[in-house]
Amino acid sequence: MTTFASGTDTLTRDALTVLQPGFTGTTAPDWLLRRLGEGLASVGLFGRNIASPEQVAALTAQLRAERDDVLVAIDEEGGDVTRLEVRTGSSFPGNHALGAVDDVELTREVAAELGRRLAACGVNLDWAPSADVNSNPANPVIGVRSFGADTALVARHTAAYVTGLQSAGVAACTKHFPGHGDTAVDSHHAMPRIDADASVLAERELAPFRAAIAAGSRAVMSAHILVPALDPDRPATLSRTVLTDLLRGELGYTGLIVTDGMEMQAIAATYGIERGSVLAIAAGADAICVGGGLSDDETVRRLRDALVAAVRAGELPETRLAEAAERVRELARWTARVAPEADGTGREEVGLVAARRALRLTAASPFTPLTGAPFVAAFTPVANIAVGDETPWGVAAELARLLPGTETGSYTGEDAARAALEAAGDRRVVAVVRDEHRHPWMAAALDTLLASRPDTVIVEMGVPQAPARGALHIATYGAARVCGRAAAEVIAGE
Q1: Which residues of 157-180 are buried (b: 16+ CB within 10 A; e: fewer)?
Q2: Cα 343 from Cα 28, distance rounded (Å)
């Protein structure tokens, strides 16, 4: 049983309880263990904390030795956004690939297997799935993290994902409420704005969240976006109208509300993390996510003290903070009592099965698989912060396994095609792109490449909005490792 450090008063414990901080290193630092003893109830894991499943299991055991009911959260969406497999790429395709297959039972199985792997490592809260409807093709931060642009499709797969993940005893945290799909700005960098009217929001953005709530999602994550039709003054994370009146009142949600990362510039650069955290709790949030960038004891102390000071100054009702802390504890109790379903059979390869089913192939004429080692030209855009640049992507590694001698290069900018052609020599070219429709330089590079080498194979690992072209065009609907493997199998005729 958890025992709190003597001298830690109820108000201070509650202020610590609502925080979900991160830390650096692959073992828990002393300051984190000390804060768990004082009332901290949640910890967030990021790629920097992960070396192997065995190491994560040892880390979570270390945390639970200090506090047995600690919530251990992770940003594990599968697909492009993976933390558990940050060094290798995910064993599971992401949402967009699952949406392309459109088999809700497959989505449930993928989420259940992902949940089992998380649970085996001691993780019991996943900041997933993304329930955003990708209605804006130019969206720089959602894209393949969304099940698609069709509201009904997103809703049914969000519900299936929640059901599958929670069948393994891992709480789902459906995000990013009230919907981040119709944005053209990444909230890691600035404040996005959605100017759709209330009726569009109700029919499009909110439908997947209604489905998630009906499926029993134990947590919902707020978005740092300004939606004037709902609240013209404050972003959703800080809006009582959005979190309390809409999410709790109109949609009837009773579970945990978690903020997106408070150090993201949409909040940090406009309100500051201390003021932002106070306003978020006052608006109806129950847990403050922080730690993707700021990951030290000083951050925890600053936020704890800001919440305590706001209560003492009468700016934050103590009952609201106590209610938030109790919701955190209730989720911890749920994770302790829910029994994961018995392991099934044939699920180990479900991620690869899903990735293969998601492929869409377009060929001008019958395609003959490659028998010689090609040159893989990866036209590489700047990764958004949610995806990160640590995780490998592409098809080169898998093609090298199937066609030994395969070589690769990464190119960007106006000179990309010329450099790729020079490096390829007389070898067959496989061009790998990611969201060609969002990057004019990438489309120009493909034009130049195809003019010289029309037999080029193109693999689109982003959202396939641009017209298919090349001797063979493979749309993978994501850049997970299994998506690369599935594409390589087709190219090599496996």
Answers
A1: bbbbbbbbbbbbbbbbbbbbbbbb
A2: 30
Options 14, 260, 286, 435, the catalytic residue: 260
Q: Which of 96, 180, 188, 473 is catalytic?
A: 188
Alpha carbon of 289 to those of 89, 125, 286, 305: distances in Å? 24, 12, 10, 16
Q: Is 80 a catalytic residue?
A: no
Task: Please give the Cα distance from 474 to 461 (Å, whole number).
Answer: 8
Q: What angle do CA 41, 108, 175 make, to 5 degrees?
A: 45
Write the pLDDT tens digit of every residue in 270-296: 999 999 999 999 999 999 999 888 899
> Within 10 A of 129 (CB to CB), how many other CB atoms are there?
33
> In the numeric block, which tokens belong to residue 377?
């030209």
Grouping H, G, I as helix, E, B as strand and the rest as coil, residue 256 is strand
* 442-451 long-range contacts, CB within 8 A, separation 24+: 442/379, 442/381, 442/416, 444/414, 444/417, 445/379, 445/411, 445/416, 445/417, 445/420, 446/379, 446/417, 446/470, 447/417, 448/417, 448/418, 448/421, 449/377, 449/417, 449/420, 449/421
Cα separation, 144 vs 465, in Å, equals: 11
Task: Answer whether the bond into residue 317 is a cis peptide, omega within 30°.
Answer: no
- Supply the mean pLDDT for the chain: 92
Q: Which tokens is 329 given? A: 């504890």
User: Residue 331: which residues within 8 A CB-CB, separation 6 or more?
Assistant: 71, 125, 171, 218, 219, 255, 256
Tell me whether residue 260 is one of the annotated catalytic residues. Answer: yes
Q: Is the pLDDT assigned to residue 339 strictly greater than 60? A: no
Contact 100, 477 (CB under 8 A): yes
Mean pLDDT of 72-100: 95
DSSP states of 101-152 as a string? HT-HHHHHHHHHHHHHHHHHTT--EE---B------TT-SSSGGGSS-S-HH
Go through the chain and tell me how many residues it has: 494
- Within 10 angstroms of residue 138's Cβ, the number of other Cβ atoms is 12
Q: How far apart are CA 321 and CA 218, in angstroms?
A: 19
Residue recorded with tokens 């792997």: 117
